[in-house]
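Course assignment 3, question 2. Fill in each field.
Student: A.L.
Task: Predict the tertiary structure for the chain below.
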Amino acid sequence: MAPIQKLTETLGFQFNDPDLLKSALIHRSYLHEHHECTLPDNERLEFLGDSILNYLVAAFLYEQYPQAGEGELTALRAALVQARTLAAFAREIDLGAFLLISKGEERSGARKRDALLADTFEALVAAIALDQGMDRARTFLLPFVHKAAERVAAGGGPADYKTRLQELVQGQLGITPRYQTVSIAGPDHQREFTVEVLIGDKRLGLGTGPSKQAAAMAAAAEALATLEENREEDRAV
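Answer field:
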């Protein structure tokens, strides 16, 4: 693990409570091997960070795209808070190097795992908000979000993600994406739909929303973000 001081240098500020930052970096597996550690793991911070991220990203999109409807905003948010995107944010600050994990997780390559990096990034955002306030958390997060939003909404702002995905997939593979409802939850007046988009038999995106259309749009946005990230990885090889 890299010294935490390097992370605070990257963040550009010192924590009032350094233990809060350390706790954000503790995976539960670490505590199984280090019974002397009195700090909790980062799961509670991850829970809080998930809500903070959704709020800050939603507020950013609401202000950034004043002409966008609910479905478009839902789609963009889904693409920006998905695990792959948050993991990419984490890699920009080399967050994996600072994780406190077990030897077994170390051997399995956990420091590079998208899900673990995304969870830790959420925990870090929560720790910043608790220690420094929401304004500091917003200042930390928005540069990542702004760049990612420009990539996802390439072409000048929110668009019909389903149409863009269809054009891209048909052009490259000669097949049409399929949308399938995974679940419907909530009371009649507050439904939440979950829809997946399939390319052949492979799920490429998953989205939720207050209608099937909004959920499908969110799934398409996530699929587009995934395809873009894959292209960037291919170019980097």
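Instructor remarks: The chain is about 60% helix and 10% strand. The chain has two domains: 4-152, 161-236.
Grade: pending
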